[in-house]
Design a protein that fits this description.
heterodimer, A: 476 residues, B: alpha/beta, 7-stranded mixed sheet, two-stranded antiparallel ribbon
Chain lengths: 476, 383
């Protein structure tokens, strides 16, 4: 079940909201937990028992790693064991297939026979909830927060349906107090629902429309693609991934707010970044914060020499790439970003800050877009094919499909809307700080509500239409 | 301000509750046109739940069951039409909007753009089989007619907008050009519906395809039927009735097939796309012998209108239609049933007919007969 499904929109969410509203405050966390269990169990029933077991394990282990509770050596050992258990699960479910596949290929290259291995099924959201668990254990170990008072609250923190499958990555320290007591106000419900509708519109109207453009282009071989269409495809993908991911984050943040939770922002108009360092302050903020706190800083951060800092950055971003997916594509993508961040440390960011804003923004956008090729392509070879085509050095293309089958009027329009929303300074601020609210913005803020309703209607209409592909006659 | 926010919250939750509210009312355009595999609520089974299949089916069933579902589909399609001049945001939509308000079935564009030209060797094999079948039927005093029907993009190339064309492709040789040349070469007579109807169009200054349909209109079907009858008569000892089709103004009333693509397009305001169709008078000239041959027709959906004309005018006695050689329709009686190609009694079907008509669309000449020809040759050779 995803947020943009009819089952969620017209049954799950209104039902949960209604039950939540009438439930006494003391039982509301339990209601949300039951709803979250149902939500995850619907999508991944075979993984749910494992996840609940894992939560139980973390909850009871967390009591052993509080500073001062037990001896330091024992505390360290228990913490290390708990992290290893959680990471092992992630490594096994997410990377075993990749690792075995690479070993098998290497063995076959030396004349051996390929290893027989039954592929492991990837549990939904494992990358996100593993990081949540590590964040919880890490913050308790470092004394930043005390363990959750109730197993219900802790399990809800891990399984909370708005952020379970695709984030944002929420640190326990940031939300711990909200499990005990949170405010429910008309303001929060209003802002949450508006945010949800905007997120839904970003995902369904823009991201999904561009998705079909991207899919139809990437399905062509490079001999049929051509330089211009390749750029259209990759730029479309840049916008697709942004609006899809940020749309989902908006929906998650909006839903959480309806239930009284305040999550931190996850995106801040990343394509207005002036350099890669700026980009990573705006893109998937919760991930970059997590990687900085739990990987980069423990490695030494920027406290050592320039070389050491660069190595720390590379390692952090290689791991970040690997976190996104188990393939060489993601590793290369991570290394690509690591390289530019290192260049920023060497002074490249000063160049971008001295350049006219539009040049710095454009250059950063183009470079980030080139990086997305690795994210979207099926294999490294496919990625390099696309890049070669984009450079104009590829084989001369022979178009075999009509233009409308690759990008139609709606796709063109959504591409333009996406560009406008991404780059225009006055468009779609990701978050509205209460300090920014003035009387002059009052009418603009109020306009958001009817726009949200319209976006909701258009989004559900588009969802219905895309799910309905009738034939003229029965097919036998 | 607070009241405004409460109003918004109530409005949104009302939208979320709409499906339940609409259970008590009928929204415009609730029923959708076209045929799908209905999302059925599959019975719950642990294995299908663990694998996720049950959830997929349940979600589809839930969505399709919502009273507002049809309205939402039509709303999106209508907004796509108004805002972007395309018929749907669904990239898999089977209908596209052409020039002059013409709806085009997407599947014909592949043939139009020469994206799926069948191999010459395949077509040679088909033509050889047709020749054999024709000769076998003639030996038994039965008539044979091959009808190659046309389609809208082929007949009206100008209705295909530039963004649905591959540059230079339509000018290349396609399957029909190869097929028709082979038929002439091997002496297999056939009705070239495109050429025939072009002459009708030029003479009568009349539309052949409705803007909202994928098939030719009734007037065109009448001329095709007349041509079939004229090709049959010399082949039968007793001759056959003839049909004369005369234009008689226009009609606003649309037949089902005039609007089949419009139904599939599922827009909220379809009336804006409908145009008047030619009205005609069909006159039957009985055979001098008074005979009404029995007809066996194998073909595609283009045959439905021919069958309707035959049914109204009683040109032939017994009519049997094998739709894609997968469904059998018998008139008089009107019975319909599914058939299996491998086990259908072709010999008996041939026995109860005096005329065999095989129809295929020029976009799919490589599928001529849909398996019937081989079975028929086999059956006739065994006699």
């Amino acid at each position: 079940m995803v947020f943009s499904s009819f089952l969620f929109l017209f049954l799950f969410f209104p039902l949960v909201a209604a039950v939540y509203l009438v439930t006494p405050a003391a039982l509301r966390n339990l209601v949300l937990l039951i709803a979250s269990v149902l939500f995850y169990g619907w999508g991944a029933p075979q993984v749910l028992p494992f996840l609940l077991l894992g939560c139980t394990f973390d909850y009871y282990v967390s009591g052993w790693i509080v500073p001062g509770r037990v001896g330091e050596r024992a505390r360290k050992a228990v913490f290390a064991a708990a992290v290893i258990v959680n990471l092992s699960a992630l490594l096994y479910f997410k990377y075993a297939n990749f690792f075995i596949g690479e070993v098998s290929r290497a063995v076959a290259a030396f004349g051996g026979s390929r290893l027989s291995w039954e592929a492991v099924v990837l549990p939904l959201g494992i990358s996100f909830f593993t990081f949540h668990k590590i964040s919880y254990l890490g913050d308790i170990y470092r004394g930043k927060v005390t363990p959750s008072r109730s197993i219900i609250d802790y399990t809800l923190y891990i399984l909370f349906f708005p952020q379970l499958i695709a984030g944002p990555i929420i640190r326990f320290a940031d939300v711990a107090s909200q499990f005990d007591a949170r405010v429910h106000s008309i303001d929060d419900i209003f802002e949450g629902l508006v945010r949800f509708c905007f997120g839904l519109g970003k995902k369904v109207l823009i991201a999904d429309s561009l998705g079909s453009v991207v899919d139809s282009h990437f399905a062509l071989s490079s001999s049929k693609l051509g330089c211009g269409p390749a750029w259209i495809a990759v730029v479309s993908y840049s916008f697709q991934i942004y609006f899809d991911f940020s749309g989902y984050s908006d929906m998650a943040i909006g839903l959480a707010r309806v239930f009284g939770f305040r999550f931190k922002e996850n995106f801040n108009r990343p394509y207005r970044a002036l350099n890669f360092t700026d980009f990573w302050r705006r893109w998937h903020i919760s991930l970059s914060n997590f990687m900085r706190e739990y990987v980069y800083i423990p490695l030494g951060g920027n406290r050592g020499t320039l070389l050491r800092t660069s190595i720390n950055l590379w390692v952090t971003f290689l791991l970040s790439g690997l976190w996104h997916g188990a393939s060489w594509n993601f590793i290369v993508w991570g290394a690509y970003h690591g390289a530019f961040l290192t260049l920023d440390k060497l002074g490249l960011h000063r160049l971008s800050e001295k350049s006219p804003r539009w040049i710095a923004m454009s250059a950063t956008f183009i470079l980030v877009t080139v990086g997305w090729v690795f994210f979207r392509a099926d294999t490294l070879a496919h990625a390099f094919d696309i890049l070669t085509t984009m450079s104009g050095l590829g084989p001369r293309s022979i178009p075999l499909k009509p233009r409308a089958f690759i990008i139609d009027n709606r796709g063109i329009a959504m591409l333009l809307v996406a560009a406008l929303v991404s780059f225009a300074p006055w468009c779609m601020k990701e978050h509205s700080d209460s300090s920014e609210r003035t009387s002059s913005t009052f009418h603009l803020r109020m306009l958001r509500a009817p726009v949200a309703l319209v976006l909701f209607l258009l989004s559900t209409a588009a969802l219905a239409s895309r799910g309905y592909t009738p034939f003229l006659y029965f097919k036998f | 301000m607070r009241a405004f926010k409460i109003a918004f919250i109530v409005a949104l939750f009302t939208l979320l509750a709409l499906p339940l509210l609409c259970s008590f009312a009928t929204a415009r355009g609730a029923d959708l046109g076209g045929v799908t595999k209905r999302g059925r609520s599959a019975p719950f089974a642990l294995s299908s739940f663990v694998s996720g299949i049950y959830q997929q089916q349940a979600e589809t069933h839930f969505a399709r069951s919502l009273p507002v579902y049809g309205f939402l589909v039509r709303l999106d399609n209508q907004l796509s039409l108004w805002g972007f001049n395309v018929l749907s945001s669904n990239p898999k939509s089977r209908v596209v909007l052409g020039n002059g308000g013409h709806l085009i079935e997407r599947s014909y564009l592949a043939s139009f753009n020469r994206q799926s030209v069948p191999s010459r060797s395949r077509l040679v094999a088909i033509v050889k089989e047709l020749k054999v079948l024709k000769d076998l039927l003639a030996q038994r005093g039965k008539a044979f007619v091959l009808l190659v029907s046309t389609n809208k993009p082929s007949f009206y190339p100008d209705v295909v907008p530039s963004w649905y064309r591959v540059d230079g492709a339509p000018e290349k040789q396609g399957g029909f050009e190869i097929f028709s040349a082979l038929l002439r070469e091997r002496g297999v007579d056939f009705i070239d519906a495109r050429a025939l109807l072009k002459a009708v169009e030029e003479r009568d200054r009349v539309s052949i395809f409705p803007p909202t349909g994928t098939h030719w209109n009734d007037y065109a079907a009448c001329h095709i039927t007349a041509e079939i009858a004229s090709r049959v008569a010399p082949q039968l000892v007793g001759g056959a009735p003839q049909l004369q089709c005369t234009l008689d103004g226009e009609r606003l009333k649309q037949t089902d097939q005039d609007v089949d693509l419009l139904r599939l397009a599922n827009v909220l305001f379809p009336e804006s796309l409908i145009r008047p169709a030619p009205r005609f008078i069909a006159k039957v000239h009985p055979a001098t012998s008074g005979s009404k041959p029995r007809l066996l027709m194998v073909g595609t959906s283009f045959c439905w209108q021919i069958l309707q004309i035959l049914n109204r005018r009683a040109l032939f006695g017994y009519r049997e239609f094998l739709y894609y050689f997968q469904r059998q329709v018998i008139v008089p009686g009107g019975s319909q049933r599914s058939i299996k190609k491998e086990s259908f009694d072709v010999a008996a079907a041939l026995d109860r007919s005096d005329v065999v008509v095989i129809e295929v669309n020029e976009a799919y000449v490589h599928r001529t007969g849909y398996g019937f020809i081989e079975r028929a040759i086999d059956a006739l050779s065994k006699e």
